[in-house]
Design brief:
The protein is 43% helix and 22% strand. It is α+β, with helices and mostly antiparallel strands and 306 residues long. It has two domains: 165 residues, Sandwich (Jelly Rolls); 132 residues, Arc Repressor Mutant, subunit A, CATH 1.10.10. Strands 1, 2, 4, 7, 9, 10 and 12 form a seven-stranded antiparallel beta sheet that branches. A four-stranded antiparallel beta sheet has the order 3-8-5-6, with no helix packed on it. A two-stranded antiparallel ribbon has the order 11-13. β5 and β6 form a beta hairpin. It is globular and about 70 Å long.
Length: 306
């Protein structure tokens, strides 16, 4: 069952408010099409996400050598000197996009993360046609709105596969309100990706660079719940996904760690405003053409904001 649980665990960036992020594509997409004669030695003032489509590219970053093959992606961080070349007889093709990703003003979100240098994209089957379309449709000297949207999809997919953890403080100090906002976002992301871990809320608080009582208040002020209450809400969101897949309430209770299905049903209704059976009936009505979901007021109440 671990695989299924992983499949419905959210992205590390799921809990970041959309208004908090600023994605900037700093130049038009680079349509890589490199022969055996290609060689590049440079460093970029911004981040560079490279995705391979055909052939094989060789890279040297510092003392580490990497090969990039179809379906693999690599992040070159700003200020890193690197060398790239093609040793193969055929063309090495792919996509490279220079970008910055800010959060809460000028804070560099990528600098806050420990990321694997290179990953094989786990969602490559669905991403491959999007990457090819992005590459072929990109204007040579400009950036479009559609590119922004699509690149965020690629970037989130890379981060999901490459994420190792949050850096303590990041590489650039952040002060004031932005610092506590970022700390709360990191804690919420940590909790939401492992809501079934009984220690995750306590660990998220422990790792925050603030006094525990102060951080609890800051977390509650921003998200309407304490870290432990937020974990329980994320746990019920996990339950909701399983219910929508057709599992019975008693089966779902066992999957998310409740030994008593009745207690689970009460906890679910307290968090979501509807019973597990009621939620399944709502899904069924939607399948039959009736509206499913919460309006703005219902969502605010569920999130503890109303």
């Amino acid at each position: 069952m671990a695989k299924k649980m992983d499949e419905i665990g959210g992205s590390i960036l799921d809990r970041v408010p959309a208004t908090a992020l600023t994605l900037t594509l700093t130049r038009s997409a680079i349509r890589m099409q490199h022969s055996r004669l290609w060689r590049i030695e440079k460093e970029n003032p911004v981040e560079d996400l490279v995705i391979a489509l055909n052939g094989r590219g060789e890279y040297l970053v510092g003392d580490e050598r990497f090969a990039l093959e179809p379906g693999e992606a690599m992040l070159l961080r700003r200020g890193e000197a690197f060398t790239g070349w093609n040793e193969g007889a055929g063309l090495y093709t792919g996509l490279a996009q220079h970008f910055t990703l800010g959060i809460y003003g000028d804070a560099d979100l990528i600098a806050q993360m420990d990321l694997r240098r290179k990953v094989r994209l786990s969602r490559w089957d669905e991403l491959a046609p999007l990457v090819r379309s992005y590459r072929e449709s990109a204007p040579p000297n400009s950036v479009t709105l559609m590119q922004h949207h699509l690149f965020m999809v690629f970037l989130i997919a890379f981060v999901d596969d490459a994420f190792l953890g949050w850096r303590q403080g990041g590489s650039v100090p952040i002060d004031g309100a932005a610092a506590i906002d970022l700390a709360v976002m990191k804690a919420a992301a940590q909790i939401s990706t492992a809501p079934l871990d009984p220690e995750v809320a306590a660990l998220a608080v422990e790792q925050a660079p603030y006094n525990d009582d102060y951080f609890h208040r800051a977390f509650r002020d921003r998200l309407g719940r304490t870290p432990r209450q937020y974990q329980e809400y994320c746990r019920m969101e996990r339950a909701m996904s399983l219910l929508e897949r057709g599992m019975s309430p008693s089966q779902v209770a066992g999957e998310i760690g409740y030994s008593d299905p009745y207690y689970f049903s009460r906890a679910f209704k307290r968090q979501m405003g509807i019973s597990p059976r009621g939620h399944q009936q709502r899904v069924k009505r939607a399948q039959d053409g009736q509206v499913m979901g919460m309006d703005e007021a219902d969502q605010a109440r569920a999130l503890g904001q109303g």
